[in-house]
Amino acid sequence: MDRIRQVFIFSIVAFASNFEYGFSTTYLNTPVEEFKVFLNESFTKVGRTMTESTYTMLWNLILNIWFVGFIIGIWFNPLLNDKFGRKIGFLVGCGIALLGAVLRLLAICVYRPELLIIGRFLTALCEAITYQSCILYLQECSPTHKRGMMTFLSEISYSSMCFVGMMLGTRQMLGGDLIALMTFAIPFCAFFFVALFFLPETPKFLLISRSNLPAAERSVRFYHGSDCDVDTVIKEIILEAEDETQTALSWKSVKELFTEPHLRMAILLSISALQNTVGLWSMLLSSTYFLEEIGLDEAVASWSSTAMTLGYTVGTLAGTTWIERIGRRTILLSFTIVDNIILVLYVVCAELSPVAKQFKYCCLVLLILYAFVYGSGVGPISWFISSELVPQKYRSLTQSTCYSLNSVIVVILTFSILPLYRVIGSYAFLTLYTTPSVISIIIMYCHLPETKGREIHEIVSELRGKTKSS
């Protein structure tokens, strides 16, 4: 019963962040024509005519304002989550997410595209906060032996909502009625916002940052179950709290991330892991274009993103079965290598597709397989590994640093892939994704410690050189 209760509680935490995050990632992908009609009618109602160039510029702004908001939101994380607490950061983020969802609906109702842009910007900003709050909650509240599986819930919730957003955007469902599509998320955002009020702060924040032992003990009982050994859990948190008498909110602390060898190594390893997540963005956003370029029928190609997202979702579900059985290091390295092999095979099949048409269908299968392997190990571990490599006081700051650098890389490579693809074809994947990934694999192979089933203070000690991996 305690296990079911734990999964339910941590699922609430995961979906509180990723319901809106995943939905917002994909709801624009399938109802493109309906949004084009909306933009045309918006211009007509104010006596203006929308040209093709205006549409392209406006649509790109609607799509890419997400990255601007996300990068800005990342840096609110240390302030909110470290100074005021993980719960306050989560609540602020979910409250803004609800506001963003309402603005999106209002934009459609009154034909004001600028409200859609503002709503999307606010949603991206708040999701950068709530996603990091979510990872901190899952890492700091779950029992050590279940930490990987519980953190996997974040990727499961995100991938499933990407799939829901993609499916709801089709004409067969809500894609033909943008008001219904925009209304869908609002009651769920409100529910998760209210639900967070009933969740205690994380025990590690309460004990390490607030020195509130009674509240930390109550939090441990709430998240670990009534039959857990509270004293043992508290002792492990105290070990992690050694030498952490202040929070990492000063410029000195930012400097320490790059001057202290073990923190610098944690940053390098986290960015190396996140480098392997970059390719999926381009696949999700532009897979239809890539498949059409190799000669696949438009109808088949247009469903490829949905099929990829389904493969991604199934992969995250499969990953929960081995995340606590196999080491994080083993999964991350081996699955990343497999994903790179799949990408190389895709390039080979794409180049051979003019010779034999069967190869273009192989490309579709390989894209789905790529997403499955990504979801079953590469993506989930890459996003939470930074939280397992640093002490509690540096955790939010490390997340913000790594996520912001990764977001910049995503923007650069996502904008580069299509122009480069037009010049050198599918070899662009090898240039932009495979080559950097191989470098990251070498770095992780040489320096990444195993984190499965280990307390954070043990992992940090190994990075400091005090202990060796067992």
UniProtKB/TrEMBL annotation:
Membrane-protein topology: Multi-pass membrane protein
Gene Ontology cellular component list: membrane
Domain of life: Eukaryota
Key words of the record: Membrane, Transmembrane, Transmembrane helix
Upper taxonomic lineage: Eukaryota, Metazoa, Ecdysozoa, Nematoda, Chromadorea
Originating species: Haemonchus contortus (Barber pole worm)
Primary location: membrane
Stretches that traverse the bilayer: 7-28, 57-76, 88-111, 117-138, 150-168, 180-199, 330-348, 368-390, 402-421, 427-448
GO molecular function: hexose transmembrane transporter activity
Protein name per the record: MFS domain-containing protein
Start and end residues of each Major facilitator superfamily (MFS) profile domain: 10-452
Subcellular localization: Membrane
